[in-house]
Amino acid sequence: MAATPxxxxxxxxxVPSAATGTSPAKRAQILEGAAxxxxxxxxxxxxxxxxxxxxxxxKGTLYNYxxxxxxxxxxxxxxxxxEKLPLMFRRIDEGATMADSLEHVARALIxxxxxxxxxxxxxxxxxxxxxxxxxxxxxxxxxxxxxxSILAAWLTRAPQxxxxxxxxxxxxxxxxxxxxxxxxxxxxRMQLPVDTSPAYIDFVARSAVRVFLNTYQxxxxxxxxxxxxxxx
Amino acid sequence: MAATPxxxxxxxxxVPSAATGTSPAKRAQILEGAAxxxxxxxxxxxxxxxxxxxxxxxKGTLYNYxxxxxxxxxxxxxxxxxEKLPLMFRRIDEGATMADSLEHVARALIxxxxxxxxxxxxxxxxxxxxxxxxxxxxxxxxxxxxxxSILAAWLTRAPQxxxxxxxxxxxxxxxxxxxxxxxxxxxxRMQLPVDTSPAYIDFVARSAVRVFLNTYQxxxxxxxxxxxxxxx
Amino acid sequence: MAATPxxxxxxxxxVPSAATGTSPAKRAQILEGAAxxxxxxxxxxxxxxxxxxxxxxxKGTLYNYxxxxxxxxxxxxxxxxxEKLPLMFRRIDEGATMADSLEHVARALIxxxxxxxxxxxxxxxxxxxxxxxxxxxxxxxxxxxxxxSILAAWLTRAPQxxxxxxxxxxxxxxxxxxxxxxxxxxxxRMQLPVDTSPAYIDFVARSAVRVFLNTYQxxxxxxxxxxxxxxx
Amino acid sequence: MAATPxxxxxxxxxVPSAATGTSPAKRAQILEGAAxxxxxxxxxxxxxxxxxxxxxxxKGTLYNYxxxxxxxxxxxxxxxxxEKLPLMFRRIDEGATMADSLEHVARALIxxxxxxxxxxxxxxxxxxxxxxxxxxxxxxxxxxxxxxSILAAWLTRAPQxxxxxxxxxxxxxxxxxxxxxxxxxxxxRMQLPVDTSPAYIDFVARSAVRVFLNTYQxxxxxxxxxxxxxxx
DNA sequence: TATGAATGAGGATTCATTCAT
DNA sequence: GATGAATGAATCCTCATTCAT
Lengths: 232, 232, 232, 232
Prior knowledge:
Chain A has 232 residues and is mostly helical.
C-alpha cells in the first residue's frame, strides 16, 4: 500500500528561485493581507485566495512575489518577528530605585508576553514548529532572548551591579522572565480567561521583583511576600 | 434573478450517526492512530484517510466510532488530558528537608512540562484554542492547575506551613511553577534545542527552590544564588 | 464526558465564493453539460464529477461558475424555464374560424406539454419540489400559467368575445388546458408509451375544442362528440 | 477517457435471487419503514441505514428480505400501487341523476389525484421513471387507468348509456378525468399552493360535469358555464 | 436467522498552483 | 507585471453492501 501520497511536503520550498515581483510597496501590501489571514486562521487554515483577496491583489501577483504559501508564511513571520517584536522591548526605563526599574521591566515583559502580536506569533510558530523550525529560532532570538539579554546586560552594569550578587546574569534574567509569566502567560497562550487588569499585572510585577531581589540583592533585609488585594 | 440560492439541507435532522461503533479495543486502536497523526501534523494538517491508514481501519470504521474529525480530535485530546496528564504529577515525594521536598517537586514539574505528551498537547491545543476552547480548559485543569493545586495544598500543611510565610498559597505555587519553567519550557514548546541533562534540570530545580525559599521561608539566612557548572 | 462535540465552523463567514467565473461561453458550456446530466439522472442522481466531465471542464471550474450543486441545478432550471419555455407558446395563431384558432392553440399546448424539454423540467422539478420550491413557482409562471393567461386574454378579446359566454376566463382557459392533456400528458410525464402521431394529436385537439365550445359558445348547434379513427 | 465508471447500474437487480427472509410480518415491517423514508426523501435521498433504523431491523435483515435498495424500492412502490391505490376509486356511487353520479365521480377523482399517497407515488415514480420503467406501468394500471376504465364501463351501462352519446367511451372517460384535473392537479403535483376547499373542489367537479354533459348528453338544452363564487 | 461492525468507492467541495491573456 | 480562470489532487464524509458472530 505505497498508494496515496501521505502529506504535502510543506518545506520543499528551499529554493528561493523566481519571485519576480519587485515593488516593495506591493510586497508590503501582500504581507499585510497575509498577516491578517494567517493570524486569524493559522497556516493550514489560511488560503491563498483569501490572502490575495484581503491584500487586494490577484493570486498571480501573490505568486510573483512569493514562490509558495510556505515562503509567504515564513516571510510574514520573519517580518513580524524581526520588525515588530524587538520594538516591544528595546531598553530599560530607569526608575528611582533598582526595584522601581525592575518593576518597569516586569510590566514591560508582561505586556510583551500578553500582546496580541506576541500571542499570535507564539500560536502559529508553535503549531508549525515541526514544519518550519527556522521560524522558532528567529522568534526566540528577537523576542524572549532579546529581552533577557537586555536585562542580563543591565544586571551587570553599574550602578545596579554594585548592589546585586548575580553569578550567572543570563540565568538570573531568565528566572526574572519566568517569574513575570506567573499565572498569566500560560493561560493567555491557550486563550483562557485571564486577569489582565493593571492592578493584577502590577501585583505580579511587584511579586516578581520582590522574589528576585530577595535572592539576588547583595544585602538589606529580606522582604516578605506580597498578597493580591483586588480592590487595592 | 428570482430566487435566493436554495440550500439543500433537506433532511439534516436525521441524526444518522451517533457513532455506532462499540468495541473498546477498536476505539482505542483508532485513538492510537489519531494520536500519532494529530501529534505530528496538528488538527488541520491531519487527514482522516491518514488516520485510518495509520490505525489500520477503514475510513468507514473511523466514522462508525467518531462522528467527525472534530469529535475524534476532541476525544483524543480529552483522553490524553484526562487519563495520562494527571498521572504525571500526582503527589509530592517528601524529602529529608523542606528544600529537598521542593526540589523533588521542581524536578517532577520540569519533567511534566518537558514530557513529549505534555508538549504535544500544548502544541495542538494552543494551535486550535480558538476552535476548541473546551480543550484548553480541560488541559489546564488536568495539567498545570492540578500541579499547582497540589503544591498550594502542601504549602499550607504542617510541618512545612510552620516554616513558611505564604499569604497566598495559590499564587506562591504558581510562582514556583513559573520558576521551574526557567530557560527550558518556552524553548521546548517551540521545539528549539534545549539542555535537558539531569545536571541542568537539577540546577534549574535547585535554583527555583532557593529563590522561592528566600522569599517564602519564615526565617533563616538568605541563601546566595546558584551558578551552573556544566561539568559538575 | 465533558464537552459537547464542538463544531468546526471556524470561519464560515468568509464568503470565499460568489462564483468568480465570468466567461458567458464557458458558463453556457457548463449549463449544457448540467442539462444533459440533470435531465438524465435528476438532482440527487447527478454528480458534479459527471457534469464536469460531460461539460468538458474541471471540477474546479464548475465551482468557479456555480457555488454549489444546488446553485447549478437552480441556474439550469431557471434558465430553461425562463428562456426556453415561454418561446414554446407565445401567441395565438388566428385561424379562419374561432374553432380553427382554438385548434391551433390546442395543438400548440399539446406540443408544449409533450416536448422533451417540458417533460424533463416537469420530472426534475416534481421530484425536487420539496427541496427547491422556488423552481416550481418559476416553472409554473413561465409554462402553464403563461399559456392559460394568453388564452384567457384571447377569450375576452373581440371578435371571439362576441361569440362566447365566458364568465370566468381564467378557469375556462384552465379547463381547455386540462382538456388538451387528455390521454397524453399524464402518460408522457411517466415516460409511458404514448401515441403522439399527428393524427392522434389532431383528434385530441379537435375533441378538446368541440367539448369546450359546446359549453362556452354563446349560440349555435351543439356538436356531437368525435371518435378517433387511427387510419384517418 | 473511458476512465471512471459513470453511474451505478441501478437496474442491474434483475435476478430475484437470494432474499432468504421468510417472515411476512417482518417483510411488512420493513416495507413500512421503507415507505416512510422513500416517501420523504425519494429513491436517491433515502439510505438503507435510515430505512433499517426506521423499520426497527438491522441492515443485515434488510438484505435478507430484499436483495438491494432497488429491489426494496420496487417492492415498496408495487405494494402501495397494488394494494392501496385501487382502494381509492373502486366503484361509482350512484346519485339521483346522471349529473349527480358524475359529480360523485368527479369529486372522488379529485380526491384520488390530490391524496398524499397518490402525489407521493407520482413524485417518486416520475423522478425514477427512466430507471424503473416498470413502476410507472404498474402505477398507471392501478391508478388512472383503473379509474377511467370504471368510468368508461359505467358510461356504456344502462341507464346512463340511454341518455348519452359516447362513440369512444375510453376517450370520453379520459376527457372527464382530464377535466377533473383542472387547476388543481398540476399545481398539487408541484407542491404549489392549491385551493382544496370543498367549495372549490365542488365547483371544479360541477364544471367538469357540465362541460362533459354538454357534449356527451344525447339531448336537452345546453347548460351555461358555471362561475366560482368563493363565499357561496 | 438476525445482527451491526467493517469496508471502500464515490459524493460534494476546497485550494495551491499554473498560465494564457 | 498583473490578472484570475482553469486545474485536479486532496479533503471530509456517506452509504450500499458484505460477513463474522
